[in-house]
Records
---
Amino acid sequence: MSPPPRHPWVRNYVLAGGRTSTQWRMLMHTLISATGAMPVAAAGPRPEAQALYQRVCAGPQTVAELSAACGVPLGLTRVLLGDLAGRGLVTVHADLDPFNPLILERLLDGLRAL
Amino acid sequence: MASAHSDAVPAAAKIVVAGGFGVGKTTFVGAVSEIDPVNTDAWMTSEALGVDPGRPGKVRTTVAMDFGRISLSTGLVLYLFGTPGQPRFWHMWDDVARGASAAVVLVDTRDLESSFAAVDYFERDRKLPFIVVVNLFDGVATHPMDKVRDALQISPDVPLIAADVRLRGQTVSALVTAVQHTLNTTRSLYR
């Protein structure tokens, strides 16, 4: 047994073993941002994880944008971003309530101003 | 822990653009997107899709999907996601539709059948309000709208409009109609 990790949510993730999904809810348009600027090696040995992390460090982006920009399939992108979130390297941002009337009004105002 | 960094992140909203193959989804996205529509390949294993009769023995299937982005002055970034056309990717459609604020189903009156699956999907989904947009490929309507509504068997409460999706103004209008429809449909949930 390895010593218990500092954060319980990391523990859950580490214990997930052969991961095909993550506990982070990540929609295609969920925004991901870097918590700071660490060397890419902090993302772990996988080149896909390093590429994703490097891209996130350039500015907040959606899961789909990161997947497309790095050429990493969507499913794997989610797993690796969940991994990076578990390491505290990236933040998985909360999604908007898509039907909140205030959000929809802001969408309408924004579209009409185009 | 909230950080100053996360405060700088804009809020992301999403609208789905659906419809059959060749109906103008990429054109629609490209007409309003501030970036060139990103055509991305997302793969799934055949287990996730069920048996793919067209490609026996194929382990991975690539699904082409495109998206665009519009930064709005009201502090939101709107993402447009085009769904993969083929109905056998409905699993993927769920993923695309999840968390969306509205859906636009594009139809081509010369090939209504190609959009049957998309109309059917959103009719049955019920959670995500949608509108139907007849793409005026040559800038003119070739079929009366009531005929189109009949042929597609769209409920009377689903807005049906026509637009030349090559034109930014008409595409933006279609998005406004879609968001307004969602607002009208879902507002009661928040009273």
---
Amino acid sequence: MSDVATAAPLNPASATPENIVEVRNISKFYGSVHALDKINLSFPKGQMTTLLGPSGCGKTTLLKIIAGLLEPSDGEVLINGKVVNGPGPERAFVFQDFALLPWATVLRNVAFGMELAKVPKAEREDKARHYINEVGLSGFEDKYPHELSGGMRQRVGLARAMVVKADVLLMDEPFSAVDEQNRRKFQEDLLHLLAAENKTVIFVTHSIEEAVYVSDQIVLLSPRPGQIHSIIRPEISRDTSPDDIRRDKKYLDAVENIWTDLRKYLD
Amino acid sequence: MRLFGFQIPPVFSLLFWIALWEIAGQYELAFILPPFSDVVSELFILIQRADFQDAAMLTFRAFVIGMAISIVLGIFIGFAMGSSRMANSVLGMWVNIFASAPLSSLVPILMLLFGLGQTTIIVTVVLFSTWIIALDTYAGVNHISPSMSEMGRSFGATRRQLLTKVLFWAALPEILAGVRMGLIRAVKGIVIGQLLVSVVALGRLFRTFSDNFQFEQFWALTIILFIFALTFSSAIGWLENKVEYYANTRG
């Protein structure tokens, strides 16, 4: 497996500006359950990193610790070289269950981050409309979440996270509640959208194909306790069409290699 | 309801019983049951009487003030119980006891404590309705998906913003259900309370009417109270319907 990075965990002294997010020595216990064990990871600026692993490997826990929504039992998270405790404006979160306000329209939901930051109404709605258009929902501004399909709801969740201009986008299995056809379309749209925005994305998924398709870097986690198994860089060219990527030998090899690694954790 | 293949509108059931009442009254089958038409005409006389209007105004004003206090207090207690384990263990037992206790027996004591005026009615309403509002609010807060507050926090909500812009609205369907139940309990509380010590307001009117065998007036007053309770409860029901669409779709 030539494309597995050998020196995966970086040493703590190298807080280079290229790594916008650094995770140092993170451990997490839930009571007596050891969820994460001494995780060290670096997330290069402007790249998409996927946390991939079987259920129970702590990938969502790690993402929520990076988001500042969970306290680690040990270790620290650095954003732009600074230790952070709790959520901050440089990170935005996309939720697995969308977490939209059911009583608010699409427009208000997308603008909600700015509403909390007390941005004037006209200004925040202007910006929100721009991203509603970007995610392909123009015309749905005044609809309520229950009037939208799962895929459309997650587009609202994505627009809400994009519009606050956070450098880091944290996505927790964003497509798991979206059906297969919409999921593929959504993945393509996401890559297209991110190419123009220079965002750093940390993406949690349990789908190997999804991880390889969207990622610059894949972190494979092993379960109980969650540890880094390996880090893979698929090195797939993103200049070709989505269909060509899915037929690319590197794409197919990477999927196969990861599957070989992960299957030993299955019962 | 269907009868002989015809769809019968629900209002016919009401009309049927009213007709039965009227017939029973006209034939004087029971002395406590005067004809319905007499009751209705008495109702219109009653609502123009000064002593009725005074009693109704006093009761109504006290009721509204009492409900306002209950709603604020109940929501506060419910949120405290829902967001702090300690508050839940300290308050939970008492709220449950008060929500299920036969509180009517306390009303005479309240009258001794607070006199025979408005204060007693307000305290009665608060005592009868606060606990169920607190319990329903607590259920609502518990029902909120954890990702809702995570969403608020991740987008930088302050504690206050999280409460007023996310959690309150997320719990609103249960809160409204609690308010409606509280309201019905408060009406019962007032009527029972005033009947037990029938020297104030509507309670005195009820006592006067039944002691003097004025059954037309007695039933007229009962119907007015029914209409009042139904109107209030349907108003809340209407609000509940407005928020129901998202109660069904959240989480």
